[in-house]
Amino acid sequence: MKLFSDLTQNIDYMKSRFPLEQSFDIIGRSIAIGQTKGYLLFIDGFAKDDVMVHVMRAIQTCENQAQNSVSYLISAIIPYLEADPVDQFDQLEAALLSGSLLLLIEGQTQAIVIDARQYPARNPEESDIEKVAGGSKDSFVETIVFNTALIRRRVRDRNLTFEMKTVGRSSKTDVCLGYIKGRADEKFVKELRRKIESIDVDSLIMAEKSLEELLLKKHWFNPLPQMKYTQRPDSAASYLYEGHVLILVDTAPSVMVTPATLFYYMQFAEDYNREPIVGTYYKLARFLAAFVALFLTPTWLLLAENNHHLPEIFRFIGAKEEIGIPLLIQFLILEFGFDILKMSATHTPSYMGGAFGIIGGLLLGEFAIRVGFFVPETIFYMSVAVVSAYCIPSEDLTAAVRLFRLFMLIATGLLGIYGYLGSLAVILILLFTTRTMDPKRPYLWPLIPFHAKALSNLLFRKKVTKSAANQEKIS
Predict the structure, then answer these.
(1) What does the DSSP assignment read for 30-88?
(2) Which of 97, 334, 421, 431 has the most CB atoms within 10 Å of its CB?
(3) Nearest-5° angle of CA 351, CA 357, CA 361?
(4) 441 pLDDT exceeds 90?
(5) How much is the mean pLDDT over the chain?
(6) Model confidence pLDDT, tens digit, residues 106-137
(7) H-helix or E-strand containing 103?
(8) Residues 6 or more apart in contact with residue 68 via CB below 8 angstroms
(9) CA neighbor of 185 nearest in space, from 399, 475, 470
(10) Measured between alpha carbons, how far is 424 from 355 in angstroms, rounded to an integer?
């Protein structure tokens, strides 16, 4: 719907669309533009006070009718770069809700949108999840413009593009596509853009997580992550150079990276802040830890319950003492117990967190053994598996490994070797059938299909000169 030339009609329409009289933070003020009436509309808390003072001072200096046209005000009067004419009410509403200033003028069928918004934001601080001993200590915040600036500081490429979209009928959440033209696959970018524009939802309640669920069509029983998250601008910049596409959502302190194969969830910035040999060791140790986290307890349970079939040299495997609770039940109690301790520690005040972890991890386990609730072996092997899982950089992949381990434990405890092999087959089927957002990029790439150079770059920490020269483009 187009604006009216009558200022009163425009004001009445905006009052019918917004609770100007009831909501204290939606402010409308009449203003004189020379001999012409004007109306300034904005949301308190978003507008920069100093910018508003300069704008009002400038437009109040107009003296004749010729200076009151929208084009003249923008080009010669308003001392602010981000000022644009708008002639549609729906565009005005979207601009107001996003924090811009609106200037309505008597006799004009266009309004001026002044993008002088300033969102409340915290300073970029080191991420709690992706901490590194060396390297930069900044991370993304909840303001999308700050996040794009953090990336542009590292990627000074003229082909770096950020496309802004709006998702949500009520929330009107800003969603941004970031990619480098010429490096990212143009067809994939086009398809991703189409998917975002076709989303029809009332709001993105949980920001980037809600958007991920709307973009990905996956089975509920598949816990494998298909969208990688990072809170580090340097990591996001490296993915851009490799040809990935970033998705930024306003109010989210992390960035989504796509397409992401299984091996990318094992990458960590700390590997590249060390010497190549040390970084390679960290990478390989992390992959070993992932295997231990998944297979240690189910394998030990299988061998412990079939101890009599083992060669003499492996007869030490198994419980040294017998209690009334089966090993499977012990493992299941420990699985849920560790998760309960983790959730409790998350909701515990920070000044008590360390003490709570010590009490939960040591005292409870010690007393459980003394009262005969667990054998020491189950606590030991479960503790090793849990600690190994925390070596995985991605929390989403860690959760998937935990669920797979639980599934293998139950199947092995109930069906023995057949359950172990059957559950392993189910996990492999899920790995082979899971897809990334790019249909051309399999989930197990570069292992399947095999790509020696790309797999080598993911498994080994190369020198910067060599890795830059051999950098694999996703497209």
Answers:
(1) EEEETTEEEEEEEETTTB-HHHHHHHHHHHTT--SGGGGSHHHIIIII---S-EEEE-B
(2) 334
(3) 165
(4) no
(5) 87
(6) 999 999 999 888 777 777 888 878 888 777 88
(7) strand 101-105
(8) 33, 34, 35, 36, 62, 105, 107, 108
(9) 475
(10) 38
